[in-house]
Design goal:
With about 350 residues, this protein is an all-alpha fold. The protein has helices spanning about 25-35, 40-45, 60-70, 75, 100-110, 140-145, 170-175, 190-200, 215-225, 245-260, 265-285, 290-295, 300-305, 310-320, 325-340, and strands spanning about 125-130, 135. It has 15 helices and two strands. Bound molecules: zinc ion. Zinc ion (ZN) binds near residues 100, 102, 103, 128 and 130.
């Protein structure tokens, strides 16, 4: 079969062609299925774990995939998201897949193999731009149609199927910023850094005066009536890559909603307003509450009020690298936290 020959086209027959816009890991998983191989074996053949191949593979990995599959280098390279970096590589080494169910249904109806799109693999991509619907962790049925048998099925988070209580516009904006079909925005690195910092902040145990739970609970409680366990007491560094795929999606969506809240915070007022008043009632001295209420309700302010002193000051240091509008919002959030008397 030639598996022992380093350059043999061992994965070229039966032939499995990449679909247009298909992500590299998805194509390799379909090759594994067609060849009755497990993913680890395909990983050995190409010199890179299939689970990590979407995250900035080296030219030598792309070349080796081209040799093994007898497909041109450029065509293999086209299956790689141009903006995904090795910093986004999941440290747990699991397949970081999220899918649009409507796109997968269209694949089947059109007689194509259901497949993962390159556009879905970036952590800032949380909705399908075509159907304007939330990406989801593949269900068991979807995963079984796309993956070889040896892959463990992903944990689901059914709460994420609905975006009714979140600013869909912000998800669409974030997804279009990392759309591989468009030129990258010059400040993308800063924006992605802000999302990473916000994910870190959302994972921290909130001020104990407010209760036990990650700061994300402040946003998940009113949205989906649920408590999120804290992951750290001080600000972690790059937590997003250490989360499982369902939590990565959950935290990325919350951070995106915080980064690009609805204009005038209208939607936040509707969904989080009550909650905000309750937080203020717990942490703000009575005489200052009216002033706080007048400050409006930037959800970043809610986060600043809820963070304990140490992670608050850690986040404050990171905020110096944020973009101009975020720095302005943070400085108002700091004032709010000072008024509350906590930070
Ligand atoms: Zn779709």
């Amino acid at each position: 079969m030639g598996f022992d020959r380093p350059h043999a086209a061992t994965l070229s027959f039966p032939r499995v062609a990449p679909e247009k816009g298909e992500a590299l890991s998805s194509w390799l998983a379909r090759i594994a299925r067609a060849h009755l191989l497990d993913l680890d074996h395909v990983g050995d053949e190409i010199g890179c774990a299939v689970q990590l191949v979407d995250h900035a593979p080296s030219d030598s990995t792309v070349t080796q995939i081209g040799r093994r599959t007898a497909v041109d280098f450029d065509r293999v390279r086209a299956a790689v998201h141009p903006l995904l970096t090795s910093l986004d590589r999941p440290v747990r080494g699991e397949l970081d897949w999220r899918v649009c169910p409507a796109c997968l249904t269209e694949d089947v109806e059109a007689g194509r193999a259901p497949h993962l799109r390159v556009a879905w693999v970036h952590p800032l991509s949380t909705v399908c731009l075509k159907h304007r619907s939330p990406l989801q962790i593949p269900t068991d049925l979807q995963a079984m149609a796309m993956l070889p048998m040896d892959v463990a099925l992903p944990r689901q988070d059914h709460g994420l199927t609905c975006v009714r209580k979140e600013p869909l516009d912000s998800f669409l904006l974030a997804a279009s910023l990392v759309d591989p079909a468009k030129p990258a925005s010059p400040d993308l690195e800063t924006l992605v850094g802000e999302i990473r910092d916000l994910v870190d902040a959302l994972s921290v145990q909130m001020n104990f005066a407010l209760g036990r739970g990650a700061a994300l609970t402040l946003f998940e409680q009113p949205r989906r009536d649920r408590h999120i366990a804290p992951m750290a007491l001080t600000l972690p560094d790059g937590l997003m890559t250490g989360l499982d795929p369902a939590d990565r999606l959950l935290f990325a969506r919350a951070a995106i909603a915080l980064r690009w809240p609805s204009p005038g915070y209208h939607q936040e007022r509707e969904v989080l307003g009550d909650w905000f008043s309750r937080v203020v009632a717990v942490v703000v001295p009575k005489g200052r509450r009216r002033v706080i209420a007048d400050c409006g309700m930037d959800p970043l302010g809610l986060l600043a009020v809820a963070l304990p002193a140490q992670p608050f000051h850690q986040l404050r240091r990171r905020a110096k690298d944020w973009s101009e509008d975020m720095r302005a919002r943070w400085s108002r959030a700091e004032q709010l936290a000072a008024l509350a008397g906590l930070n």
